[in-house]
Amino acid sequence: MQYPEPIAKLIDSFMKLPGIGYKTATRLAFFTLDMEKDDVTEFAKALISAQRDLSFCSICGNITEDDPCDICQDPSRDQKAVLVVEDSKDVMSMEQMKEYHGLYHVLHGVLSPMDGKGPEDINIAALLTRLQKNEAIKEVIIATNATPEGEATAMYISRLVKPSGIKVTRLAHGLSVGSDIEYADQMTLYKAVEGRTEM
Amino acid sequence: MYLKTLELHNFRNYADLVVEFGSGINVLLGENAQGKTNLLESIYFLALTRSHRTNSDRDLISWKTKAARVSGSVQKEHTVTPLEINLSSKGKNAKVNHLEQSRLSQYVGQLNVILFAPEDLSIVKGSPAVRRKFIDMEFGQMSSKYLYNSAQYRSVLKQRNQYIKQLQFNPKGDQVYLDVLSDQLAAHGAEIIFQRIQFLKKLEKWSQEVHKEISQGKEKLSFQYVSPISSNQADTTEKIYAALQALFQKQREKELQQGKTLVGPHLDDVRFMVNDKNVSTFGSQGQQRTTALSVKLAEIDLMKEETGEYPVLLLDDVLSELDDSRQTHLLTAIQNKVQTFITTTSLSGVAQQLINEPHVFNIDHGVLMQSKEE
């Protein structure tokens, strides 16, 4: 026996989401049948609106409703520093910290030829034009992940930016705050010892 | 350390086995297909929770039974540690001192073993890739930094090769990114080469001693790290890094032509030399065997140096491959030092005379009998 077409289609749609297989998708689909009518309408609207109403900021590349985005438009932010991150989720993490008040630049990925991402495929060219145009920027903070690809991307950006005389910095590596040395893996410890600072 | 007792239940062709071993040389004597190697395998399994012969644990459980158990007690300097592994179709659990270990990685290391099987000859005879794999395995066990750098190196290498291929189709592509990848590769590569040379020196020192003894001082074994980087450039990581960078620059055009990275530790090799001649090309079968054996036996001393305890040595069908004098010297080299398990189909005259108080076990269809020698 087959499922009726509407639910089969719904299962199929859920399966397009990452991390959801056939069984989870079926469970979700049947759950949707029992949901309040209003909730379902809200859900459907939210799905459509997320794609329709969001675009990428023409300055920093972050997702936004208005172009340029709130952060780029905010004059109270420190115009001297730009923090470069891999994707928009990283901007949110940094913002939740509430201690960084500068600008952002979102790369939408890292350099990885294996995944078909070369220098032209991520948002680097826009960063360079931005630095050329905007003379207020004095520091580029590179906050790509501590993976080989993240490191390569950081090195690549620093090579392109440094000749212009703008300061390029990289986030620190090492122990995570509040963790026990006992539970840290050996490479993290090694990096932490290597990157120790004078007191 | 040595393995004092071993108990098998439904393991391979052993239905139930309880046996006590001697701390010296234990000879497992039997005809073909009686279960000699199965017994060695069970000891290897007790040490490392996996088999050297198969990746499927199901193969280890006797036919028509559902679960197997391997247990034993390990005598260390002052303590006796009981070990136990239970194996069923659902998986396995390991116990140290009757306490279940939540992770197998916590269990491994209680009993250290070194296995020498006829296949190990390929360290000498085989392709450079076999030797690289061997040194990566050995040195990775001793240094987590080495393990980290080789993992990073592999991943950067893949990216770099892919990018070079892309540049072939698009010659005007970004060269700065290639520079970045080259520098990254050189940085990890330099750490790897530096550590390889350091570890090889240690291994060479111990191998030479063993080799000298087996060959009665007639032959001298030495190692040579084969790399486009000359040895006078290799005394610090900074120098190796600079040398690798220069090589990448020099090879760039050729690399773009061939579409891959042409220098680096992933292409280096180790040459085993006996009396300054390359054993893998000019050595006799016996010399090759002796070299492989010396390298393996050197691991015993290296492990003692690193962990403070001698491991247990498992020799699978090695005696039959060596001539009488090499047998004699092998046995003297290990006598009174490490607990050794030797499988063989017959105990030749020389070996029998030489081994002091050997424990000889006759194996017949999965049943063990300790034979009382006069």
Task: Characterise this structure.
The complex is a heterodimer of chains A (199) and B (374). Chain A is of the alpha/beta class and 199 residues long. Chain A has 2 domains: 5-53, Helicase, Ruva Protein, domain 3 (Orthogonal Bundle); 75-198, Dna Topoisomerase Vi A Subunit, Chain: A, domain 2 (3-Layer(aba) Sandwich). Chain A has 8 helices and 6 strands; from the N terminus they run H-H-H-E-E-H-E-H-E-H-E-H-E-H. Chain A has helices spanning 5-15, 22-34, 37-52, 70-73, 88-97, 124-133, 148-161, 186-194, and strands spanning 55-56, 63-64, 81-85, 103-106, 139-142, 167-170. In chain A, the strands form 2 sheets. In chain A, strands 4-3-5-6 form a 4-stranded parallel β-sheet. Chain A has a two-stranded antiparallel sheet with strand order 1-2. The relative contact order of chain A is 0.08. In chain B, the strands form 3 sheets. Chain B has a 6-stranded antiparallel β-sheet with strand order 2-1-4-5-6-7, covered by helices on one side. A 6-stranded mixed β-sheet of chain B has the order 8-12-13-3-14-15, with helices on both faces. A 3-stranded antiparallel β-sheet of chain B has the order 9-10-11. Chain B is globular. Chain A: A zinc finger (C4-type) spans 57-72.
